Amino acid sequence: MKRFLLGFSLLILSVSAGAQKFRSEKGSITFFSDGAIEDIVATNTAAGSLLNSSTGELVFIVPILEFRFSKSLMREHFNEKYMETERYPKSTFMGKLVGYDVTKAGEQNVKAVGKLTMHGVTQNIEVPGTIEFAEGKAIVKSKFVVKLVDYKIKIPTIVWQNIAEEVELRIDFTYKTI
Q1: Of 16, 38, 125, 169, which has fewest CB within 10 angstroms of its CB?
Q2: Residue 150: helix, strand or coil by DSSP?
Q3: 41-44: which pairs have CB atoms within 8 A and are 24 or more residues apart?
Q4: pLDDT tens figures, 102-124
Q5: Residue numbers of the domain that contains 122
């Protein structure tokens, strides 16, 4: 967490350097688990993020407790049994977006490269996405798969058919200039 706060602070400091900076306070993260008995979908619209469009630096923080499910029991199990939210209340990403031109109009393909921390485990990731700059905003989207074992998220054997070993994450942030 200290490394995340340091990175977040460095990005904030670079805001004062005059580069084009963007902030998103209500980004959306959705995960989908394709279970044999039923699918599990949850959405979190409380994620915050900063983007420096001149350097590509990107950080985000996701409060795990803010994921919303169709059933309250799913939310309870998610927070208590899988994500251990009391112990690991946030997920973070620190890295860069690469492969775009800030002067181009329209949607562009990008790659996010950096460190994703979830459930107390940090992994290097490289995921595809898109970015679009328009009217003082930046829109960043991505869809990728995460293996639960990579983040030491255990699936109890009694419910192994309900939870997929891999979950799909969808990221959707709309940024406004700072």
Answers
A1: 16
A2: helix
A3: 41/69, 41/70, 42/67, 42/68, 42/69, 42/74, 42/75, 42/78, 43/67, 43/68, 44/68
A4: 989 899 999 999 999 999 999 99
A5: 2-8+20-177
